[in-house]
């Protein structure tokens, strides 16, 4: 059953991000359970996240553009800040999805969180070894989501601050050089 | 019955479901996620649960009714039901599923049949109680009242 729910802009307006940025965290949630999809979507919306929900790992790969041999246009603009996936799903499991994401050049830096109703240590270890950011026991709590969001926003803030500082430095250098050629060189570095 | 009495009835009724172990704190989580912008969230999730469960219980009856029971088919269904009942806080259904899964692992057909009956019983119970809960809420809303806030202190 095709069920890709696109984030509704109306709902984002309800919850202004405390960071004052119009760019909310975009989370891709993957779960084959209807009930759990509805639940995780709400948890994420309430936590000021933009949400895309899909019902299988295959659909997640389609959404990310990782299922095609030839890279199609437009996926460079797709910004996903976090992927939350159920572990046990028919067809491709969350673990297999994790591996595929970590193998891709486009999305390997995106944190992937695994959710499972079963507290199986070897399973948890395997996921963390494969590069999962975190492993959450279901049912997921609002506090889990808030904690994830806060730690990710910190990283986003840091990288935003770093790139702002870099731009400021470059701007200074452009004005301090007399030679226009050198100024041009400086600018292209950015 | 006046509005205040209806609200009190609802609170007492809800409390009883927790005290009887039919619902657990996960249901409170659901209620906390409901607000003016999403006033039907709980009933929407619960409706999905009912739809999923009806389907799963049907599939389980079919699978267990086969001459040769394929536990590879039975177990994922029970796992699914355990998951969704856990997600909405239907504690007794979830617990019955845990027992069911153990017998699936042992491939004990007799015991699995009994487990299925137990799960069905718990499911119809929670379904009945939740439907009553929603009716009480609807009556309050229809009378122009607000659903009393969730009490966490009991």
UniProtKB/TrEMBL annotation, chain A:
Domain Response regulatory: 26-153
InterPro entries: ARR-like, CheY-like_superfamily, Sig_transdc_resp-reg_receiver
Keyword Transcription: yes
One family name in Pfam for this protein: Response_reg
Gene3D superfamilies membership: 3.40.50.2300
4-aspartylphosphate: modified positions: 86
Bilayer-crossing regions: none
Subcellular location: Nucleus
Family matches, as CDD domains: REC_typeA_ARR (cd17581)
Domain of life: Eukaryota
PANTHER family the record matches: TWO-COMPONENT RESPONSE REGULATOR, TWO-COMPONENT RESPONSE REGULATOR ARR6
Name this polypeptide is given: Two-component response regulator ARR6-like
Organism name: Camelina sativa
Gene designation per UniProt: LOC104762428
Automatic annotation (TrEMBL), chain B:
Superkingdom, natural source: Eukaryota
CDD domains linked: HPT (cd00088)
Main subcellular location: cytoplasm
InterPro entries: AHP1-5/YPD1 (IPR045871), HPT_dom_sf (IPR036641), Sig_transdc_His_kin_Hpt_dom (IPR008207)
Localization of this protein: Cytoplasm, Cytosol; Nucleus
Transmembrane segments annotated in the record for this chain: none
Domain HPt stretches: 38-143
Keywords: Cytokinin signaling pathway, Phosphoprotein, Two-component regulatory system
Signal peptide: none
Phosphohistidine found at: 79
Role: Functions as a two-component phosphorelay mediators between cytokinin sensor histidine kinases and response regulators (B-type ARRs). Plays an important role in propagating cytokinin signal transduction.
Domain comment as written in the entry: Histidine-containing phosphotransfer domain (HPt) contains an active histidine that mediates the phosphotransfer.
Full protein name: Histidine-containing phosphotransfer protein
Species assigned in the record: Camelina sativa (False flax)
């Amino acid at each position: 059953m095709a069920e890709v729910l696109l984030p509704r802009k109306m709902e984002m307006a309800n919850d202004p991000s405390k960071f004052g940025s119009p760019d909310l965290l975009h989370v891709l949630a993957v779960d084959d359970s209807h009930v759990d999809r509805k639940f995780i979507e709400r948890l994420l919306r309430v936590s000021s996240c933009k949400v895309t929900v899909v019902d299988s790992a295959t659909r997640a790969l389609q959404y990310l553009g990782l299922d095609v041999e030839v890279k199609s246009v437009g996926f460079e603009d797709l910004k996903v800040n976090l992927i939350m996936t159920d572990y046990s799903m028919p067809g491709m499991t969350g673990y297999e999805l994790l591996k595929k994401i970590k193998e891709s050049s486009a999305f390997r830096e995106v944190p992937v969180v695994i959710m499972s109703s079963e507290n199986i240590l070897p399973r948890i270890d395997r996921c963390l070894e494969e590069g999962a950011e975190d492993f959450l026991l279901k049912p997921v709590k609002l506090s889990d989501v808030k904690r994830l969001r806060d730690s990710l926003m910190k990283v986003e803030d840091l990288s935003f601050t770093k790139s702002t500082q870099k731009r400021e430095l470059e701007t200074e250098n452009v004005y301090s050089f007399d030679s226009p050629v050198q100024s041009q060189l400086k600018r292209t570095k950015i | 019955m006046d509005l205040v009495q209806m609200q009190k009835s609802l609170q007492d009724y809800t409390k009883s479901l927790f005290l009887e172990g039919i619902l657990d704190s996960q249901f409170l989580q659901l209620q906390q996620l409901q607000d003016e912008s999403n006033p039907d969230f709980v009933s929407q999730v619960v409706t999905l649960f009912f739809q999923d469960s009806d389907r799963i219980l049907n599939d389980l009856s079919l699978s267990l009714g086969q001459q040769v029971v394929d536990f590879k088919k039975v177990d994922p269904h029970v796992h699914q039901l355990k998951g969704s009942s856990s997600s909405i806080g239907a504690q007794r259904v979830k617990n019955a599923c845990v027992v069911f899964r153990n017998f699936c692992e042992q491939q004990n057909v007799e015991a699995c049949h009994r487990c299925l009956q137990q799960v069905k019983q718990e499911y119809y119970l929670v379904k009945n109680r939740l439907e009553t809960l929603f009716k009480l809420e609807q009556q309050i809303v229809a009378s122009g009242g607000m659903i009393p806030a969730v009490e966490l202190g009991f």
